[in-house]
Every structure is written in structure tokens, then in C-alpha cells.
Hints:
By secondary structure, the chain is α+β, with helices and mostly antiparallel strands. 39% of the residues lie in helices and 24% in strands. The protein contains 5 helices and 8 strands; from the N terminus they run ααβαβββββββαα. It has helices at 18-28, 38-88, 109-112, 227-259, 262-266, and strands spanning 96-106, 119-124, 129-131, 143-153, 171-178, 188-195, 205-210, 215-224. The strands form 2 sheets. The chain has a 4-stranded antiparallel sheet with strand order 4-1-8-7. A 4-stranded antiparallel sheet has the order 3-2-5-6, with no helix packed on it. α2 packs antiparallel against α4 (227-259). The longest helix has 51 residues, at 38-88. It is flat and about 80 Å long.
Amino acid sequence: PRVGPRRLRPRARAPLPPAMRTSSLLHSGRGGSGGGGGAPAMMMASAALLHSGRDLLSEFDRLEQEVLVLQELRRVAQEQLRLASDAEGRRREVPELWVRVLTVEHDMPQASGCRGRPLRIRVESESHITSSAAPRKLDDSGQILWQETLALPLPEEQPHDGAGGHSSSATVRIALVGDGGGSDASAPLAWQTLPVADLRNQKAVHRLCNLQGGWRLSLALQLKLSAAGLLRGQVAELEARLRKSREALALCGEKLRDVVPPAVLASP
């Protein structure tokens, strides 16, 4: 018999389970058929697809809710329009100017001597005067966040004939007045005259008025000639918004069908 060291042959390794083979491939960076990182790339693509689908579902829900809200707002506006149109035929409306006072500012409140002095806003027409409900004072920065709406009847804006003609010279005066004691308590500190003609489309407009003595008023103005006319404009605006939202909802639905499996979309 042969004496000497025995040569050992390597034992065959048992095959790895499938899960361990997949883990080994992911950690080694080789794909299942020729390498190149195919599995991680597929996982990243799937994650991106899932994220996109989730965002589209959220956007679809938001747009669907927006359409429902706009439909209800339009329904209410149409009902109010019907009531206003019926009332318009029974009585004659007096036009009214709405003045929303947003802010009052002064360039140099310390030098003007108006810091701490009570102030009011007054709106005057040929036939009527209205003023703010309570006085306000400038803060340390020389500003007042006013946020008050004044309503001024404007019978001079009533149409003079069946064709709906108006006086082209109708104006209002916006004045800032002191509210302290003394004989000049109601004397205007600053004022500006505004024409009414450019408000007859009944749309709200913003005005920044630079007055005398460094005063500035930020206002929103709207002329109401007819409640039914205002509501017609609101209905038309709501219909335009509803049409736009429906188009956006349909487009989002098409994108969703390209990303989300039909079984998911069909599930309750």
C-alpha cells in the first residue's frame, strides 16, 4: 500500500436557496443574466412608479372634490340669480358703491403729528355721506390695517332712460378725517376724488390713493348697479372655473390609467 499524505479533493458546495441567491446578486451588483445592476434599477423604477401613482391619486381626489364644490356653488348662485331677477322686476334698485378700506399709511408719522390721533374714513357723493364705524390710530410703523367695508348709496348712478344711460361725471370723494376734539375735528386731513364711470362693469377693482401730506390709502371698490347683474357675473365665473376643473380632472384620469393597474382603479 501507498504510504504518504493523502490528497484531499474539494467537496462540492450545496446550492444556495433562491432568496439567498437573490440577496447575493443584489449585494454583488450583478444582474441575473449578464450583470449590469438590472435588479436595483428595476426596484428604483418600481418605486418611482409607485410614488407617481400615489401623487396622481391624491391629485385626482383633490380635483374631484373641487368639481363637486364648484357645482354646488354654481347651483346656489343660479338659485340666488333667479330670486334676484324676480325681485328686480318688482322694484327699482338704488345703486350702491362698496368701499373696502384695506390699509392707511403715512410716510413720516412722527413728523406729521398724527401718531396716536384717532382717524376715520369718510366717503361722500353728491347726495350721501358715510364714514367708518369706529376711529383707528396709526401704529409705530405708521400704518393701520383697517379692513372695513363702507356702503354709499349712489342714486345719481340710476339709469336716466330705458337704454341704461348714466351721467358720465359722477364722482365720490374719499377723505381721511381726524376724530379728536376741537372745531376742526371733522376737517379732512387728506382726500381724493374718484370717478365712478370705470366701475360700471360691477367688477371689484383695487385703488392705491396717494393723498396730500404723505398719506396713502389702499382701497377695493365695487359698484352695485343690479344684484341680478352681479349674480350673472358670478355664475359665469363659476361656470368657467368648473369647466377648467373638469378638464384638469379628465387629464389627471388619463395619466392615472397609464400608471395604476386597472384592478387598483376598480377596487372600492
